[in-house]
């Protein structure tokens, strides 16, 4: 079939717009990569450059001086991300499904009950007291996994995705005598793949990127997740600017700019490939087949 | 109350399915919420949360007395509106292009690349901004000098920062938001497009009359969700980009940065909580009203 | 609809609140019993009857230090625990806040009432505020029983600084420190460009002028705030009262009762006019307030010349440059030479304290007693493993790492051990900057006691005004001090008006009152 003129025009505009956006998004990341292979003095003197003036592996060498720490942090991050994402996705999709059921009378009230939590919060202190003093999760992986399982935002998005699944599917299954949980598990979940992929992606990213929970609750170094190592390095650079610097020994030096870049690359490297993986689940037209079949 | 129990027994399984979520939010959100009481006390270690002296609205005084609250609120709201609307519109445009364009490889690669800024911490964003815009060695001014133009001192002028900040915020969230719209587009049944094709509608018409209307609920939902945080700022973005530069506060000061500065030297739990409560309350009223309006117009689009 | 929603919401919130209240009560009770009744009885029984404290029960203590752990910390702590188990039937879990948002975390540790047996405490970590609000345990009665040697060791005036309303709340370190502000600068350039020796404000100005003209280098290439602010304070002899007091200062060391808001002085006017000329001459970049990079980094790449450092900081910086950047020669000018006196830091500039909810304060004190006074303990926890992290040279100075170790793999040990630092056990580093010893000699001759830091103020009655004043100070004061405003006279007027309407007078009045009370009790003029 010959392409229509409008389709060609659409594609030309699309290619231009998307290319510009892509370029803007790629550039800084490229600068970080280039920075991580640069000589420290070049960066201080001239700032970031697209191509390193003097190519060197120094930054990576110094990161991997202590490979055990990096590897154990990788382990922690991967385990926490996997556990949190799978469990979170299950609970979120279940809640989202219930809220999307039009015949469920209290769905608006419960949606409000959940949404309300994004508006008001008691702040850091009560939350900390809850987790440390009452749940006793200090220095426990539970503190990294459980509080991030669900968010109002994810549940409501999930509900929105599930809304587009026709009611007829649930109804016909009910007539066939299927239980509510079976309907959710066997019929709804397979149809909600794009939604699940999206929320799964978001959950995965939030676990991977989370350093704050570790910052608050983890005190054993071997339990530090990857992202926290990065922030720890950035923070130790910042403290040197304060009066406290006078107390630090002469051996305490600010981490090199290039080292920060290298760590950033090591920390984000693997998760960048999560997205192409998730893309496979963005498949069109799932519902039609199901309704017809 | 009896209605509640009837409904409970009728939809027993559904209730059980949502129960973990409810327990979760009670534990991690509602119980800690009593901490808002800090806003009304003068904290002491001997008293703790409930034993410290009650001081009424005194902790809110620093917000209202300084006379800048109106300007700060205006700044914060305007920035957030720009973030929310421009961000969502651009994400929607990208999603539409990416779903309809030809070239699988191009589509997949660009999607992935647009996600990259999400991973770049604001600390590094701050470093980039500085490298781009500083007067002596910044890339922008270097380019202007090469083109024979007068270099421009960004750090002595407040206007450009509005655009710089908006740009970087949208830039950071572009890939993330696009995914939501892409997933929503995937939920649109192909039948509509096929039928429209047979009717001779070209691609622009199909987008205009099928895709966009089908994305409207998602668009409205995302806006509604975001409105609740209208007074909460992207503290890290502002702090890392503008830093301690009082010269630029005229256009770049938001409530979060103001509160941070006010309490940085002498932190006070009560005052910090009070500021948060003001932000929450404002967002709450806004969301309730907008949701009410949406509900009147089109019940299905409302948040709750 | 509305009604039902409301009912459901009320139900949920009521449940939530009830649960919490119950939990809070239960928690309060248990906290009360362990904190309230056990401890004093244990503390008051022992001293009278027998001298040896009872250590028959094995306990694990929970200690917190600020900052980061060192790579070898787990090893070191393991060794330490071996010693502790033998001597005191105790082990310690040593935790670190890391520098990541450490102030927030420090605050949380104390506010949440976590069971912590010992924590680093310091005037720069808000010791006075926390102590006044009741965060720390009163050690007055425990010290003679569980840490008698330490009690004798710490000088009387240091104890006085940590005594609030007659109660001792911390164990200060015993290491008189001199940390006057100053600048490090390129000494080799100074000779090269023929600048005068740096000894006052004019010579600093001349130096930077020549650096800019001849070397074509911006002297303070990073953030210039610290440089200018400390220079301003010490040049005019304005003294901070009770930690950082923003714009409210004592007019000079000799007039402690004369409290002023310095932006309203003539000195300030003169200063900002001068700084305007400095900024216009390009002594620092126009975006200096946004720069996150340290001026010191630029010195190392020959693109900067001047950097603010206090004396220990300068020593560290210079020894690093001497070691790693051959061919650069640095000089140091301490601002103390403007008025020819220095004020040693308070003892509690670094120290250790026991939070109120500690489970085993007695044992914790005994561990600290060992740590401060037993050389084996002290060296292990302060310098790490001998023969690994360090070795001693013939003068008893530290060589790090120990000879034969690969410096890329083994580094000098360093954690926030400052809280238990004692001079009698302290060892110098073999590769320290030699200039520091001379400076410390110089300071010892001209030292005067710190009479301003121990003034306790929590600003409770004026905290709204203080927050507003601090805000104005940062928004308008800083650009003004750095000469970044187009019209100085207008900016001064604007700054003063803003301060006035923010309530600077109320803060001033509060501070004045507190200073008077303090001066009366201390018998100051």
From TrEMBL, chain A:
Parts of the chain that traverse the membrane: 12-33, 73-98, 110-129, 141-162, 183-208, 258-278
InterPro entries the UniProt entry points to: MetI-like, MetI-like_sf
Localisation per UniProt entry: Cell membrane
Membrane topology value: Multi-pass membrane protein
Keyword terms of this UniProt record: Cell membrane, Membrane, Transmembrane, Transmembrane helix, Transport
One protein family per Pfam: BPD_transp_1
Protein name (record): Carbohydrate ABC transporter permease
Native species: Paenibacillus roseus
TrEMBL record, chain B:
Sequence ranges assigned to domain ABC transmembrane type-1 in this UniProt record: 73-290
Transmembrane regions listed in the UniProt entry: 12-40, 77-101, 113-133, 161-188, 209-231, 276-294
GO cellular component: plasma membrane
SUPFAM superfamilies, per database record: MetI-like
Membrane-topology descriptor: Multi-pass membrane protein
GO terms for biological process, alphabetical: transmembrane transport
Database matches in InterPro entries: ABC_transporter_permease, MetI-like, MetI-like_sf
Keywords (A to Z) from UniProt: Cell membrane, Membrane, Transmembrane, Transmembrane helix, Transport
Subcellular location: Cell membrane
The keyword Membrane appears for this protein: yes
Presence of the UniProt keyword Metal-binding in the record: no
Recorded superkingdom: Bacteria
Classification via PROSITE patterns: ABC_TM1
Gene3D superfamilies from the UniProt entry: MetI-like
Family of this protein: Belongs to the binding-protein-dependent transport system permease family.
Protein name as it appears in the record: Sugar ABC transporter permease
Upper classification of the organism: Bacteria, Bacillati, Bacillota, Bacilli, Bacillales
TrEMBL record, chain C:
Pfam (any one): SBP_bac_1
Domain DUF3502: 457-519
DNA-binding is among the record's keywords: no
Gene3D superfamilies referenced in this protein's UniProt entry, alphabetically: Periplasmic binding protein-like II (3.40.190.10)
Residue segments, region Disordered: 31-53
Keyword Methyltransferase tagged: no
Keywords: Signal
PROSITE patterns from the UniProt entry: PROKAR_LIPOPROTEIN
Signal peptide: 1-26
PANTHER family: ABC TRANSPORTER SOLUTE BINDING PROTEIN-SUGAR TRANSPORT, ARABINOSE-BINDING PROTEIN-RELATED
Protein name stated in the entry: Extracellular solute-binding protein
